[in-house]
Structure formats: C-alpha cells, structure tokens
Amino acid sequence: MAKPNLALVGATGAVGTVMIGIINSRPNIWGEIRLIASPRSAGKKIKVHGEDLTVVALSPEAFDGIDIAMFDVPDEVSEVWAPIAAERGAVAVDNSGAFRMDADVPLVVPEVNPEQAKNRPRGIISNPNCTTLTMMAAMGALHDKWTLEELVVSSYQAVSGAGAAGIDELAAELGVVGKDASLGTNTDDVRKALAAAGNDLSDSPWRHPIALNVIPFAGSLKAGGHSSEEMKVRDESRKILGISDLKVAASCVRVPVQVSHSLTVHAKFANPLTADEVRDVLSKQPTIRVVDEPEKHLYPTPAMVVGQDPTFVGRIRQSLDFPNSIELFVVGDNLRKGAALNTYEIAELVAKEF
C-alpha cells in the first residue's frame, strides 16, 4: 500500500515551526511531504526527516497529488484554501477556528472521538481551540466512566495564545518593569514606565499591561458580555464530547506566562466518584500525566509543562459541597497539544485509511 502524501500549509509560521519539529520527532509514515507558505516564504529550505525541502507558494496546484493537508494559518486563509485543498482531493485538517462549529465538519480529539474523523462530508476536519484542548483528554476519559453533566472552568492563558505579538509584548514589558523594582504592581506606575520607554500599549493585544498583571478577558467580545474564548470552551466541549446539553460556565483570563495554558475545572457527573478513582483513570491515559502530590508541593505548572506533548493534571480532589463533583487543575503546552500536535495526530489518524 502506497504511503499518503502530506502537505503543511503555514510551514514557516509559529505553529508551523512547532509542527516541523513534531514531524521530525515521529516515525515517517509519509510518501511526499510538501511545505506550503505565502509567496514571500517560497524558496526557503527546511529540513524534514533529514531532507532539505523547498517551501512552495500557496496555490491550487500546490495540493495536486496531496492526500492530507494540514493548515496552520489564520482563519481567513483556511476559510478560502481548505475547501480548495478538499476540491483537489486532499483531506484538509484545519487548525484555525474557521470550521469548528460547521455541522458538516467534525471537531476531533483523537483520544476522545476518533471515529468522527471519518465523518467529513466537506473533506475537512477541524482542530479544537487550544483552551478547550487542554482539558479534553481528561474530560473525555472521565465522561466515559461517570457521564459528565456540568463544567465550570477558569482558564489562565499564556500570552502565546495571542500569537507572536503577545510574546513580544510580554518580553518588552518585562524588559521595562524588570529594571525598576519600585514599580511594584501598580498598574498606573507600570503604564507610565512603559510609556516612558516608548511603549504606550497601542500595539498591545490587550491595551493593558500584562507584566505583573492579570487580564480577565481573552478573545473578542460576544453577546451577554462573554468572550469568544469562553464561548469556544462551551460550544466545542459540547461538540467533541457529544453532549449537546452540557452545562458549561467559563471564564478566560490572560496571565503573564509565555507558553502553556492552565485551567481549573469543576466537573459534575451523573454518577458518584472519588478523587482516588479519578487519579486511577487519568493515570492510565497514555497522553495524560498525573502530578498530584501537594504535600510535596508537586502539581502541574506552565513552566513544568512547556515543550512537552502530554497534558498534566493535578490538585485532584472531591468537591466538599457538591455531590458527584471533582475539582482539578490541568496544564498543557498550547503550541503543541493545543495546536500543532493534535492537528498532526488527526493527520496520522486519517493516514491509517490509506
């Protein structure tokens, strides 16, 4: 049986670069690997599985002969080009938000709903938002055992979730406030120090200082005062888990961390469960690492998790005042499992069909 041909669209971007590392770290199951990017990046050489590959410009012809095309590009690019790839015969695996809630596009997490990858009438499979993905392997495993009914989630999202601009902004601000310990955490003082250094926050993704600060909003404003990130957690959790009436309350917060999203999760189930039972179930999941020894100060943190593939779970405890409920803390690298890795795992899943 011939090996399927793979394309990576957005090969020179931030997530695309992470994807190249993932491809190189895993077995080569592909026939041809084709790297695609904007015309300004065409001609660049990137080493994949020991071979120098030349980046080609995005065009309809770039998908000829391709079986699976992964998209690590902005929504507006995927919206145009993923259907074109599908029309040229490729299965498009899209990491953007363009198709996530399309009824004809499955939203797939291989550990949770791999069977949905075959249900793709448009020839497109969507990758969930990085915040939702952080908890989904754990929630899927627990739902299978005890039947999930309600979720209350607070996210602590790294600045890399806002792209390179978020990383650059935090670095610039830390360079300013780190020179003056007298600033403390007073936002007005920090803002004045940044302005004096030539950063008036006009180019910041948040319009508030992120250094020495926490911003209780992530994404864009939606109806009722909710943010787009909060709506994604609700809507995507329902679709991935197949629970159309799942009750979800989410609050998404931006924190001064470069990489790795963290979530506190309150989960209510239809059936009784204990913290020890939850630890046992989660510890058996191949893509989850349980780090839960608070008496030794061992629990997941963003710094611990960055650069790793699994999601990490700790602070597992039974709710004191809510029956059939568990509290836990989940951390995942938002650039790996939250984006590139899950996309690639979907591609691997589809490759088994060839």
From TrEMBL:
Residues 5-120 form the Semialdehyde dehydrogenase NAD-binding domain. It holds the Pfam family Semialdhyde_dhC. Substrate binds at residues 157, 254. Its EC number is 1.2.1.11. It catalyses: L-aspartate 4-semialdehyde + phosphate + NADP(+) = 4-phospho-L-aspartate + NADPH + H(+). Phosphate binds at residue 100. GO terms for biological process: 'de novo' L-methionine biosynthetic process; diaminopimelate biosynthetic process; isoleucine biosynthetic process; lysine biosynthetic process via diaminopimelate; threonine biosynthetic process. One of its GO terms (molecular function) is NAD binding. The active site is at 130 (acyl-thioester intermediate), 261 (proton acceptor). NADP(+) binds at residues 12-15, 40-41, 160-161, 334. Pathway: Amino-acid biosynthesis; L-methionine biosynthesis via de novo pathway; L-homoserine from L-aspartate: step 2/3; Amino-acid biosynthesis; L-threonine biosynthesis; L-threonine from L-aspartate: step 2/5; Amino-acid biosynthesis; L-lysine biosynthesis via DAP pathway; (S)-tetrahydrodipicolinate from L-aspartate: step 2/4. Belongs to the aspartate-semialdehyde dehydrogenase family. Homodimer. Catalyzes the NADPH-dependent formation of L-aspartate-semialdehyde (L-ASA) by the reductive dephosphorylation of L-aspartyl-4-phosphate. NCBIfam families: asd_B, PRK14874.1. This is Aspartate-semialdehyde dehydrogenase. It comes from Rhodoluna lacicola. The gene is asd.
